[in-house]
């Protein structure tokens, strides 16, 4: 399941899509505005056997289910710190154990018909777990006391065949599943062996909904691409096939205080990954002047390059308006900065998406 | 987790309050997923599975982790390839099953063989019907639930088939060692009963007595086998009624919503 799956579009079609995406304002094949997401159907708490679960269906029919399961695990090396007689005396190793460890979260992605050691699947799970673990704030939530912690297993299933690059879908579903995740209420104190309340109704959310001070949310990873001068969010498969650059940008939102909804939300960038867009592997178009069907055969022979393929010549030729040429080389730093800046924009797409996801009933 | 089997003989009620011949709640939906050729969702008690069918389509590159080949010999018939993904969160304790897991492979080839015999694969030479099954929650009768869900999804995909392949489990109230003569056969075991009691999974072709699949992984006294089988086959008939109702309800709904045209000869069909 690479991002570079084959798209059955001809060079002429690619050139057309790229041209219409480069217009100002861009015209997308499905009529969305550049910052508009695909409509989605979401539900949470669908599986009573998990600590948290969610399901999202995108309008193009792709569907994902995420289940979160938690287990209590002994923090290795922490027993040396703990001495029942002097439980609160020693501060040795305190700082090391205050933060979470990245192996407290295990994330697995399952995509039907794809081996689980496939490079694309490994990349997806790397992007998703990187976003979760980037700032250590998430795994710090899993700390019970100095000797024990929660181990969180996130199983991400793509139910439908992968019609478009599933990263945004999987990320949003994971976000929702984590929002609905609840862990049993701790009854024991200090560094004792943990003892939990067996009343599930009393179990607090991993991400408290209404915190008095600051509310933080699980991270989300968005797919952004650039075509010409335009920046397009949540590209569909056809759009990704003509992308100049595609980025997976992970952000986390923190709402300060109990101000009005969406008021004091501040966004923080966690990670950026470039996605290898399939556009780099697309065949180039042939301009009419170089096309033998339009009488260009003679021109090629005159130049003494008759033995070379017309496609090879076309690829090397100057960029001609309306003729598709796969993007080559790296992307400009300015474009990357613009993409990331657009994601982090105040009141931008991230705010919109987060508000929509908060609207989902968490039961 | 010992099951208190002695309690059964007192009130003739099982751990979850059912009688010997009662099924758990079966809830099914078809066409749950817009992008697939066929899809279904099935709950048998707390066992929940989802199925997505793609095809019949041109066979792609050999995919990893699928088991197929049944009916696919010689390319004169469609190949039915089945993938079972058991989600890590499906059981009480999280357990990850890899693609190469032996139990998974056996489930896949059983389902593939059963469906290939019932689907008219000869109508689709040189093609593949790929069925991917996701187990979201398990509480016994896993194979039966998978077969039922796959059947429903194939109906939704519009692949011609002889009849529904419906499955159900049956067990016996006493273990192999206990030699009591008045052991009752049980229908549709849950996980707890499956751990404790001898059980078998039987699938039949529709409401007939023709057995398509018979899997028994525990030791059973030969004298009790006949009773268990009879109860299982009887359960399959009940399951077929339920699945058939689901398909008809969906069809009726689609006709009344105008999603599909009313077929020829259906003018007299009562659409309430």
From TrEMBL, chain A:
InterPro entries, A to Z: Exosome_comp_Rrp42_subfam, PNPase/RNase_PH_dom_sf, Ribosomal_Su5_D2-typ_SF
GO BP terms: exonucleolytic trimming to generate mature 3'-end of 5.8S rRNA from tricistronic rRNA transcript (SSU-rRNA, 5.8S rRNA, LSU-rRNA); nuclear mRNA surveillance; nuclear polyadenylation-dependent rRNA catabolic process; rRNA catabolic process; TRAMP-dependent tRNA surveillance pathway; U1 snRNA 3'-end processing; U4 snRNA 3'-end processing; U5 snRNA 3'-end processing
Example of a GO MF term: mRNA 3'-UTR AU-rich region binding
Gene3D superfamilies: GHMP Kinase, N-terminal domain (3.30.230.70)
Transmembrane regions listed in the UniProt entry: none
Primary subcellular site in the record, as a coarse category: cytoplasm
Homology family: Belongs to the RNase PH family.
One GO CC annotation: ribosome
Protein name, as recorded: Ribosomal RNA-processing protein 42
Source superkingdom: Eukaryota
Keyword tags: Cytoplasm, Exosome, Ribonucleoprotein, Ribosomal protein
Localization (cell): Cytoplasm; Nucleus, Nucleolus
Organism: Schizothecium vesticola
Automatic annotation (TrEMBL), chain B:
Domain named Exoribonuclease phosphorolytic: residues: 22-160, 163-234
Gene Ontology biological process terms in this record: nuclear mRNA surveillance; poly(A)-dependent snoRNA 3'-end processing; rRNA catabolic process; U4 snRNA 3'-end processing
One Pfam family, short name: RNase_PH
Region (Disordered): 56-75
Biased composition (Gly residues): 62-75
Gene3D superfamilies, sorted: GHMP Kinase, N-terminal domain (3.30.230.70)
GO cellular component, as recorded: cytoplasmic exosome (RNase complex); nuclear exosome (RNase complex); nucleolus
Record InterPro entries: ExoRNase_PH_dom1, ExoRNase_PH_dom2, ExoRNase_PH_dom2_sf, PNPase/RNase_PH_dom_sf, Ribosomal_Su5_D2-typ_SF, RNase_PH
A single MF term (Gene Ontology): RNA binding
Protein name: 3' exoribonuclease family, domain 1-domain-containing protein
Organism: Schizothecium vesticola
Source organism phylogeny: Eukaryota, Fungi, Dikarya, Ascomycota, Pezizomycotina
């Amino acid at each position: 399941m690479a991002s570079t799956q084959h798209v059955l579009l001809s060079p002429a079609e690619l050139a057309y899509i790229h041209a219409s995406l480069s217009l100002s304002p861009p015209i997308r094949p499905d009529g969305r505005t550049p910052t508009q997401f695909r409509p989605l159907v979401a539900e949470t708490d669908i599986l009573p056997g998990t600590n948290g679960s969610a399901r999202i269906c995108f309008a193009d029919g792709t569907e994902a289910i995420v289940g979160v399961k938690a287990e209590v695990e002994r923090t290795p090396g922490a027993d040396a710190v703990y001495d029942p007689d002097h439980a609160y005396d020693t501060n040795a190793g305190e700082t090391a154990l205050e933060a979470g460890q990245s192996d407290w979260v295990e994330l697995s992605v399952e995509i039907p018909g794809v081996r689980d050691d496939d490079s694309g699947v490994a990349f997806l799970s790397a992007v998703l777990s990187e976003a979760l673990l980037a700032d250590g704030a998430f795994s710090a939530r899993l700390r019970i006391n100095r000797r024990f912690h929660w181990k969180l297993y996130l199983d991400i299933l793509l139910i439908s065949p992968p019609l478009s690059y599933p990263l945004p879908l999987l990320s949003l579903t994971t976000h929702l599943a984590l929002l609905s995740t609840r862990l049993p209420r701790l009854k024991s104190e200090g560094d004792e062996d943990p003892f939990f309340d067996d009343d599930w109704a009393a179990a607090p959310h991993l991400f408290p909904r209404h915190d008095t001070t600051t509310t933080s949310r699980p991270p989300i990873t968005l797919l952004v691409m650039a075509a010409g001068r335009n920046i397009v969010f949540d590209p569909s498969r056809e759009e990704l096939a003509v992308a100049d650059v595609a980025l997976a940008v992970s952000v986390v939102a923190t709402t300060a205080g109990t101000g009005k909804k969406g008021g004091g939300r501040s966004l923080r960038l966690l990670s950026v990954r470039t996605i290898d867009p399939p556009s780099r592997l697309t065949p180039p178009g042939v301009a009419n002047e170089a096309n033998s069907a339009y009488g260009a055969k003679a021109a090629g022979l005159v130049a003494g390059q008759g033995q070379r393929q017309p496609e090879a010549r076309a690829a090397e030729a100057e960029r001609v308006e309306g003729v598709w040429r796969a993007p080559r080389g790296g992307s400009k730093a300015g474009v990357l900065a613009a993409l990331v800046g657009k994601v982090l924009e105040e009141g931008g797409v991230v705010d919109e998406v987060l508000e929509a996801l908060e609207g989902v009933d968490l039961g | 987790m010992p099951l208190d089997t002695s309690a059964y003989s007192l009130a003739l009620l099982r751990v979850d309050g059912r009688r010997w011949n009662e099924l758990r709640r079966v809830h099914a939906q078809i066409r749950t997923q817009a992008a697939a050729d066929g899809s279904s969702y099935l709950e048998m008690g707390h066992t929940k599975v989802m199925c997505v069918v793609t095809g019949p389509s041109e066979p792609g590159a050999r995919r990893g982790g699928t088991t197929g080949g049944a009916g696919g010999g010689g390319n004169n018939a469609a190949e039915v390839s089945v993938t079972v993904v058991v989600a890590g969160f499906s059981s009480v304790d999280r357990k990850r099953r890899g693609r190469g897991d032996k139990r998974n492979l056996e489930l896949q080839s059983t389902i593939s063989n059963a469906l290939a015999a019932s689907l008219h694969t000869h109508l689709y030479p040189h093609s593949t019907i790929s069925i991917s099954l996701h187990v979201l929650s398990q509480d016994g009768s896993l194979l039966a639930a998978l077969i039922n869900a796959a059947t429903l999804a194939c109906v939704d995909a519009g692949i011609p088939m002889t009849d529904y392949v419906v499955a159900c489990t049956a067990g016996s109230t006493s273990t192999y060692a206990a030699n009591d003569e008045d052991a009752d056969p049980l229908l549709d075991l849950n996980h707890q009963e499956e751990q404790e009691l001898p059980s078998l999974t039987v699938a039949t072709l529709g409401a007939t007595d023709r057995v398509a699949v018979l899997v028994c992984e525990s030791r059973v006294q030969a004298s009790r086998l006949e009773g268990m089988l009879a109860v299982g086959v009887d359960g399959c008939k009940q399951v077929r009624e339920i699945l058939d109702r689901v398909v008809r309800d969906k069809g009726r709904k689609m006709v009344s919503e105008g999603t599909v045209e009313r077929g020829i000869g259906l003018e007299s069909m009562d659409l309430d």
